[in-house]
Amino acid sequence: MTARAEPMNTGERPPTATRVKGTVNENAATPSSPHQRPVRDDDNVAAAFWVTLLCTDMSDDSTARITADLRTWIAQAPPGAQLPSNRALMAEYQASPVTIQKAMRALGALGIIESCPGVGTFVRALRTARPLDYGWQTGALRSPHSRIPTLATPLRSSSPDAIGLHAGYPDRELLPEQLVRAALARAARSDAALSQSPAAGQPELQAWFANELAEATPAGVTPPAPRDVVVLPGSQSGLSSIFRALAGSGQPLLIESPSYWGAILAAAQAGVQVVPVPSGPSGPAPDELVRAFEETGARVFYAQPNYANPTGAQWSPERAEQVLDVVRAHGAFLVEDDWAHDFGIDTTAQPVAAHDDAGHVVYLRSLTKSVSPSVRVAAVIARGPARDRILADRGAESMYVSGLLQAAALDVVTQPRWRTHLRNLRQQLRARRDLLIDSLAEHVPHAHLDHVPRGGLNLWARLPDATNLDQLARDCEAEGVMIAPGTEWFPAEPSGPFIRLNYSGPNPDRFPDGARVIGRALARYADR
Ligand SMILES: Cc1ncc(COP(=O)(O)O)c(C=O)c1O
After folding, report:
1. How far from each other are the two terminal CA atoms of the chain, in whole angstroms?
2. For residue range 459-511, what is the model confidence (pLDDT) as tens digits?
3. Exposed/middle/buried for 111, CB within 10 Å: 0-12, 13-18, 19+?
4. Which of 33-47, 103-117, 216-230, 344-358 shows the lowest mean pLDDT across its residues?
5. Residue of 236, 242, 460 with the most ligand 1 atoms within 8 Å of its CB, for mutation
6. Predicted TM-score of the model (pTM)
């Protein structure tokens, strides 16, 4: 065995990675410890390193696993410690040179190792210890025009062992995983992987979205054409474009109350004046809507006629017709957000847009929740100048949507197994919804559900009037249960203390435990 590598530079804190001189043991299993020792109970770093390696399960993605192992080790090793040679790692992991090189490249890209050709690879020293001060920026930026919260509750990530009832996107077990993986692989091999997409979207995908709405269109109404479709990178960005293009900064926008927090944020971002219109289990009352249009002179009303987020409300055909009449009478637009089209449980979504061919309804349909949160593809269907203005805004915002994602999304929804998937999904959502309702009934008797949602992903529960929602959410989180305080769904003051509970998150078998925690926290709160 040759001599252990010695650090060339000395001192407490080397400014860059420690370089080594002299001979190196090619088969070294013992990383050198030129400075402080890694933080570990066990003094023998090398032994711990190899234990980690030996315990590794080689069955999955080996590169990711080796990278993760080495990251753990690096985090505990002193700067300048030498990593085992690629040859030693190959032998230890029974991995190919390509796999080891990929892992090394990944670590290199993270900036945590440094390679000295012909010498070895070493743990890199941290360069910055000095706290940075960006205080000057607030002086330069001044106060924001609108205070947009940094992270809405449904976007918060939770630890894997938490019971996540706050989430916005369905758990993996509810997604068509095999269809998505196969579609992405096919898209990667297709021209779409390397070409620019038309601004309004790929024609085949435009045709698919148009056809979906056309299928619901009754005789006597002209169905939308593919050119009426503008493909979006998720419907959230479509909301901003629509509000900018159809209302405009400083103009009023009517919005159901409560309503989707993201629509409220998009409105704030577009600088429009939000005007709440109270909405219940059967949608907004037509006379309230008339009053809001007349008082404000608004020309745009944002609503979710099917399985609204958060209430789960679905408008009856009669209510849809009444609302459409009011919208027409005021020469206005209804922005119909059909986000949960694929999540019908007891009923099927009935787009109001199917009953309009005069361009009053601007229809949003998203695939991000039903196909995959990673395939962010949605579409807006609008006719006439409204469509042109929305497209112009999209062009200015992001030019076009990744053709790769469009091709993958279209591939998934045109497979015969997509329909089977949707049928199974309906069953799973029903079971999850009912389990959460039963769990609430048993453990949170003070929670009141106005109605059982006939689709969608959420329960909207009213709690006793004195409930401090933020405190409740914190107490539940401390016990590993994430809930979403309803406040975020109100464009103005909330009409009461509500929580939104999503039943599409991971581990539905733990819903009863989650409800128990909420019930206990509420009871404690009532005792205070
Ligand atoms: C009502 C509603 N509209 C739009 C969106 C945004 O969806 P996307 O993922 O397509 O941007 C959501 C997401 O939660 C939603 O609930």
Report:
1. 70
2. 999 999 989 999 999 999 999 999 999 999 999 999 999 999 999 999 999 99
3. exposed
4. 33-47
5. 236
6. 0.79
